Every structure is written in structure tokens, then in C-alpha cells.
Amino acid sequence: MSEQEEIPTLQTYSETEKHRVFEKEFMPHIDSMYNFAFRLTNDEDDANDLVQDTYLKAFRFINSFEEGTNAKAWLFRILKNSFINDFRKKSKEPSKVDYQDVETTYNSEEDAETTQTVDLRAETVQDLIGDEIANALNSLPVDFRTVIILCDIEGFTYEEMAKILDIPIGTVRSRLHRARMLLKEKLKSYAKNLGYDVNADTLAEN
Amino acid sequence: MISEAEKVQGTPQQKKTHCEHEGECMKLVQLIVDGQATEEQMAQFKNNMAKCLPCENGYELEKCIKDAMQLRIEKKCVPTSLIDCIKKKISGL
Ligand SMILES: [Zn+2]
């Protein structure tokens, strides 16, 4: 995989310009990048390595980046590719194995017309604490976690997500839909553990 | 108690409690929540909201989860040692 593939025109930055562009366009996104890396790997050391790899690659391929274009999406794409190609192979992440299963199971996600709804109330979600919400997100298989992070936490559009993930927009939509379905299941089980009767009406709250 | 939203949209009792095209409705809700809907889809959604309780509840839930993802998950600060390390490596290139 090369980050150069998608961008046809190469820039010809001087050495000084390279450093200026790097500083001005790439460094401001390092917080988002670090959080993305941490959510992918669930490990601070791994997140460090992944972000460092990504920034060094970004510098090496800086001539494929046109100043003033979407640096954040460009960087996220490199990080995501580094994660898949170099990193996931040696990852300690326990969901590494079931990830393969999920990939096979949901390869037909385009056709998936699931209409089942999860019985969960907005009020119940509001009562969960941040850690429970983070745990629910972390428990999702990495592909589903990724679309939720990109869309909800980082605020990328479907079009940007399609580019970052190298998948069609239709797949972005269906993967998001499925990811949220799974997330709701997880949130529901947290709520249950807290002793909520998720089927109960507002009566119980009064 | 009747909320402001209900006064405008009609009380829940007047809305249908079962949606015959819930699958489609929920896809629309996703586009709305993500700010990716066209004007036409927006109008269609408003129309659904006015008469369909599952649509309204679905929207509330999705919106609430999205907000929770955005605002309630702790954001980590990147270690300054990482920034220093990257800058050092880059300056050596
Ligand atoms: Zn409906």
C-alpha cells in the first residue's frame, strides 16, 4: 500500500517548506490522531507507536499532500492503513481473532436490511456514565468501532469516511447502521446491569 | 405534562405507535443525526416525526447516543514526550 496512489499530482516542496507544511497542517491534528490510535489499540504504548509511525510516514510522503486540502482525513487514512498493515498483525488486542469472523459474517453488509430495533430509551443512555459508554464502544469489533469514532467523535462526513476507509459510501452507511445496532445492544446490557428494567415505562422513574 | 415539542407536533396519543416502514425510517434518522440528509429527506423526516412515535423515539435515542459519544467519552491528551520525539525524528530527516 502506498499513500501516493490516490493523489495523482506530486508537490515539490523544498526542505524548509516540508517542515513548515508538516508543522502547520499535520501537527494540529495530533490530539485527534492520538485518541483515534488509542481507541483502535486500547493501549497507550501502542497508540504512541502508531501515531509516531503515522507522522513519520506523513513526512516521508509529504509531496503527495497538497497544502490546504483535508489534512485531517489524509492523516487518518495513513493511520488506519498503518494499523491494518503493520500493526494489527502483532496487536495484543483480544478481538483480533473474532475480527476475522465478523469480517466474513458482515461481508454481505450491503444487503443487510436489518430492521430490528433495540429496546432502549434515550433517558437510560443519559444515566450511563462516560466510562460505561466508552466500554460499550471499546467492546465493538474494530471495524464497527472505527466508523463510530470517525463519524460521532471526529465528525467526518460519509464522503470523508469513504476515503479514509477505502470503501464505498453505501458501505459506510450500512456499516454505521450495524455498528450502532451493536452499540445499542451493548449499552442496553450495561443498563440492565445497573438494574434498569429497560422495558419499564417512565412510571418507574416517578 | 405536555412538552413544547408535543404541543407543536401533537400529543403522542395522536401519533401512530407502530411504524410499518420502520427500517426506512431509521435509515432516514441516521442521515438526519449525522447531518447528511438532503432537503427532501429533511422534509420527509419532519413529516414522519409529526405522526410517528417510533420515528420520534428512534431519533431521540440516536441523537442521545451520538451526543454521548461526542461529549461524554474522555479525551486523552497526547503525551508531550511523543510530540518531542516526533519533532526530533523529523528534524533529523
Ligand atoms: Zn416511522
TrEMBL record, chain A:
<keyword id="KW-0805">Transcription regulation</keyword>
<dbReference type="InterPro" id="IPR013249">
    <property type="entry name" value="RNA_pol_sigma70_r4_t2"/>
</dbReference>
<dbReference type="InterPro" id="IPR036388">
    <property type="entry name" value="WH-like_DNA-bd_sf"/>
</dbReference>
<feature type="domain" description="RNA polymerase sigma factor 70 region 4 type 2">
    <location>
        <begin position="132"/>
        <end position="182"/>
    </location>
</feature>
<keyword id="KW-0804">Transcription</keyword>
<feature type="domain" description="RNA polymerase sigma-70 region 2">
    <location>
        <begin position="29"/>
        <end position="92"/>
    </location>
</feature>
<keyword id="KW-0731">Sigma factor</keyword>
<dbReference type="InterPro" id="IPR014284">
    <property type="entry name" value="RNA_pol_sigma-70_dom"/>
</dbReference>
<dbReference type="InterPro" id="IPR013325">
    <property type="entry name" value="RNA_pol_sigma_r2"/>
</dbReference>
<dbReference type="Pfam" id="PF08281">
    <property type="entry name" value="Sigma70_r4_2"/>
</dbReference>
<dbReference type="InterPro" id="IPR013324">
    <property type="entry name" value="RNA_pol_sigma_r3/r4-like"/>
</dbReference>
<dbReference type="Pfam" id="PF04542">
    <property type="entry name" value="Sigma70_r2"/>
</dbReference>
<protein>
    <submittedName>
        <fullName>Sigma-70 family RNA polymerase sigma factor</fullName>
    </submittedName>
</protein>
<dbReference type="InterPro" id="IPR039425">
    <property type="entry name" value="RNA_pol_sigma-70-like"/>
</dbReference>
<dbReference type="InterPro" id="IPR007627">
    <property type="entry name" value="RNA_pol_sigma70_r2"/>
</dbReference>
<comment type="similarity">
    <text>Belongs to the sigma-70 factor family. ECF subfamily.</text>
</comment>
